[in-house]
Amino acid sequence: MRFIEYGTIKKKAINRFALIYPDFYKAGNSNLGLHYVYNIVNQKENFSIERFFMDFERSIENQDMMKNYKALLFSLNYEYGVINLLRILKRNNISILREKRDNHLVITGGPLNINPFVLNDVFDIAFIGDAEKSLIEFLEVYSGLDNPKKQIDEFGKIKGLYIPEIHKENKIKRRIENLEYHPLYEPIQWGDFEESFNKTFLLEITRGCRSRCSFCLTGNALGPYRERSIEELLSIVKEAEKRTKFEKIALIGSDMPSYLGDVIFELTNLGYQISLPSLKLRDINENTITLLGQDTITLAPESSESIRFQVGKCYKDEEFFEKINLIKKHSKSVKLYYIFGLPGEEYKDLDEIIKFIKQSRKIIRTKSSFNPFIPKPHTPLEDQIFDYPLLKEKMKYLSSNLKDVRIEDLKGAFIQYVISLGGRDVGLYLIDAVENEKNISYSSLSKAMEKGEIEIPSSKKEWKRIEV
């Protein structure tokens, strides 16, 4: 299998950092946040940063071992990344507990840091919110220190950083930046090695979301909606062409601007194939569908019409079917994304979903996926309970009434729930399990809850210290 990257930065520097995505290369190198950190650190004089993944135990850039880097930067995007972070430290003989580490700074960033307290005994520093400027400020302070690990107080004045040894009870304000910066060096895979966005440049068109769906983290906790102008987007692409190689562009954003069709038109005129990982219903029209030319379009009805309106996604079924009939003219299939187990859901809602899918299948080839609802901190539904027995019954009901649907593993979702709404007690439990090679599973975690070893949701709601 050939591993061929364009846009890779190989640089010698006094200060060498490790950039670690606690998942496989396929997922991690398709994460735009990772490219932000990669560019910002490498642009700074006397600093370099090299990437590690679960399937790359040595750095991609220089094949060096993780323990040889003084600062370890972890990108946390999904709950399983917390467990993987602990296992990576153990595997590399780096002390998991902060108080036992003498030489290595463990630093975390990413959307999961809206509740960093699960790892409160592990990391030295957590970046809260957008890190474009706080990371530069961090590097400037770091470069002037003899021993950053022992001089941790020096980072205390930087906004958007949570440092457990300093901020004992303080509120930490999530940092929010305008979209002024964009990474131009993106390591892009051109070999046989699998990557989610093969030969694709990731272009952030917007950040945040104007919708405030009650189950969603993005609209409630990850900052206000911001967008880039068409002129800025074209300038980024033209500059990126000088630094890496790509034949496709993926537009990244949870909420697309009104000028989406114009953006697609302009980028298509530059000779690139355009992809949109997700589309809201309002984004789908004759113009965008024609320009995209995608074989499959993903829609997210989420639930039945009544539940959909209750959680703030106010589209009627008939509006979805108008778009499905439009998609049929230009694409081969649709993929429907659902969440089951939302508050207020009854079996009649599941029947409506089943009917919706069967009706869609009569129009166009239709794939469907279901994920159990996992409550998130800082959302209006953060107090909801993950009712495993009830969800299991609903999962069986869906699978018995629908063929060829993908339903996420319920036990894995429960683990995500525990980490999502957990506190320091969950972190200590996970640390002990990793250190002593105990099993981390639905069974072990549910037993720990029954015994009172961990509390979910955390009654302390430590995440409220993060001001979003």
TrEMBL record:
<dbReference type="InterPro" id="IPR006638">
    <property type="entry name" value="Elp3/MiaA/NifB-like_rSAM"/>
</dbReference>
<dbReference type="GO" id="GO:0005840">
    <property type="term" value="C:ribosome"/>
</dbReference>
<keyword id="KW-0949">S-adenosyl-L-methionine</keyword>
<dbReference type="GO" id="GO:0046872">
    <property type="term" value="F:metal ion binding"/>
</dbReference>
<dbReference type="InterPro" id="IPR045784">
    <property type="entry name" value="Radical_SAM_N2"/>
</dbReference>
<keyword id="KW-0808">Transferase</keyword>
<feature type="domain" description="Radical SAM core">
    <location>
        <begin position="195"/>
        <end position="408"/>
    </location>
</feature>
<keyword id="KW-0004">4Fe-4S</keyword>
<dbReference type="GO" id="GO:0016740">
    <property type="term" value="F:transferase activity"/>
</dbReference>
<dbReference type="InterPro" id="IPR058240">
    <property type="entry name" value="rSAM_sf"/>
</dbReference>
<dbReference type="InterPro" id="IPR007197">
    <property type="entry name" value="rSAM"/>
</dbReference>
<dbReference type="Pfam" id="PF04055">
    <property type="entry name" value="Radical_SAM"/>
</dbReference>
<keyword id="KW-0479">Metal-binding</keyword>
<keyword id="KW-0408">Iron</keyword>
<dbReference type="InterPro" id="IPR020612">
    <property type="entry name" value="Methylthiotransferase_CS"/>
</dbReference>
<dbReference type="Pfam" id="PF19864">
    <property type="entry name" value="Radical_SAM_N2"/>
</dbReference>
<keyword id="KW-0687">Ribonucleoprotein</keyword>
<keyword id="KW-0689">Ribosomal protein</keyword>
<dbReference type="InterPro" id="IPR023404">
    <property type="entry name" value="rSAM_horseshoe"/>
</dbReference>
<keyword id="KW-0411">Iron-sulfur</keyword>
<protein>
    <submittedName>
        <fullName>Ribosomal protein S12 methylthiotransferase RimO</fullName>
    </submittedName>
</protein>
<dbReference type="GO" id="GO:0051539">
    <property type="term" value="F:4 iron, 4 sulfur cluster binding"/>
</dbReference>
